[in-house]
Amino acid sequence: MSDEARVNVIIVGGGTAGWMTAAALARLLPRRCAVHLVESEAIGIVGVGEATLPHLRAFNERLGIDEAEFMAATRATFKLGIEFRNWGRVGDSYIHPFGTFGRGQGEVDFHHYWVRMRQEGHAVADLQAYSMGVALARLDRFQPPDGDPRSIASTYGYAYQFDATLFAPYLRRLAEGWGARRTEGRIVEVERDGASGDIRAVVLESGERIEGDLFVDCSGFVSLLLGRTLGEPFEDWSHWLPCDRAVAMPCRTETPLSPYTSAIAMDAGWRWRIPLQHRTGNGYVYASRFISDEEARAALVAAVEGEPLAEPRLLRFTAGRRRRSWVGNCIAVGLASGFLEPLESTSIYLVQAAITGLVELFPERRISAVERDEFNRLIDLEYGRIRDFLILHYHATSRDDSPFWDYVRTMAVPETLSEKIELFRRRGRVVKYREGVFLDASWIAVYVGQGILPRGFDPRAATPPSEAVLRGMAALGEEIAASARAMPGHAAHVAGYCPMAPAA
Amino acid sequence: MNARPIERVVIAGGGIVAWSAAAALKRKLPRLAVTVLASEPPADALAERIPATLPSILGFHADLGLRDEDTIVRARSALRLGTEFVAWNHGLAPYVHAYAPHGRPLGTTSFHLHWVRLARDGAPPPFDAFSPAAALARAGRLAPPGAEPEGLEHGLVLDLPLHSAMMRAYALHLGATARETGLADVRLRADGFVGSLRLDDGSELGGDLFVDATGPAALLRSRLDPAFEDWSPWLPCDRVLLGESPAQPEPPLLDRAEALPAGWRWRSGGVERTAHGLAYASGALSDEAAARLLAEGGARAAGAPVALRQGRRPRPWLRNCVAIGDAAVAVEPLEWTGLHLAHSAIDRLVAMMPDRDCAAVELAEYNRQSEAEANRVRDFLALHYLASARPEPFWRDAAAARPPASLAHTLSLFRERGRLPFHEEETFSRDSWLAVLLGQGVIPRRVDPLALSVPREEAVRRIEDLGASLAAAGPGLATHGEYLTHLTRQVRR
Question: Which residues does B475 contact at the CB level (< 8 Å), separation at least 6?
Answer without folding.
Answer: B139, B141
